[in-house]
Amino acid sequence: MKKIKVDKKFIKKLKPYWEKAIILETNFYSKLCKLEEQMTNDLKMDDTLEFFMSDNSIVGIGNITRTMRLIRCEEIEKEE
Asked: Residue 54 belongs to what domain range?
């Protein structure tokens, strides 16, 4: 496999993709934060609920002050 030369010219070509990725990430976290606020309000919680992430995946729901045990995705997904 050919070795990729990382120089200023190559980085300049990558920059537009990087900028788009940052915008997508910002939009994603903004929407996720609004969903956390809605979840907290709908469930009438005094403490803010949040989605817990690991390795860039949502793996559970907890609260900011950690006074509630983490509810893991397996529990949520199996519950009917």
From this structure: 8-78
Q: Is the pTM of the predicted complex or chain greater than 0.85?
A: no
Partnered with residue 63 across adjacent β-strands are: 49
* Upper half-sphere CA count for residue 32 (Cβ side, 13 Å): 14
49 by Cβ neighbours in 10 Å (0-12 / 13-18 / 19+) ranks as buried
CB 49 within 8 A of CB 43: yes
pLDDT digits (tens, 9 = 90+) for 47-72: 999 999 999 999 999 999 999 999 99
Q: Is residue 1 part of a domain?
A: no
